[in-house]
Amino acid sequence: MKVLVFHIGRERFGLPLALVTRVLPVAQLARLPLAPDYVPGLLDLHGEPVPVVDLSRLAGHTPDAVRYDTRFLLVDYPPPGGAMKKLALKAECVSGVEALDEARLAPSGVAAAPFLGVVASGERGMLQLVDIDALLPDHVRALLFQAEGDAA
């Protein structure tokens, strides 16, 4: 399995490459009032508003300043009771693509951060995969994505 690797602080994280639809440079965001602090705003993607989740803040870290290797990772996200929606993940220090041996993946065994999935260990150290399906709690999903049929 190929993963897009990024860092939060000194720790390495990955997102399965098959889930990433686009990698975008960081852009100006429209503020989103009443959203959790790890949702810095909305990205204007060719006229479509796309919520942004800051992965560093979600993991409990203070984000670094935007760097040359900070990117928005665009993914298709499963909101409650509807069709897939676009979601942008702000990832600091994106370092590239790495191939993982799926046979060497192991559960993290940590319940404190349900969005962190399996763990891979290798010569470059430990790498934790982000589980997109467990990324946001239900109340945040409802805040960011209007359910089908609720449109005014």
TrEMBL record:
Signal peptide interval: none
Listed name of the protein: Chemotaxis protein CheW
Source domain of life: Bacteria
Location of the CheW-like domain: 1-141
SMART domains assigned to the protein according to its UniProt record, in alphabetical order: CheW (SM00260)
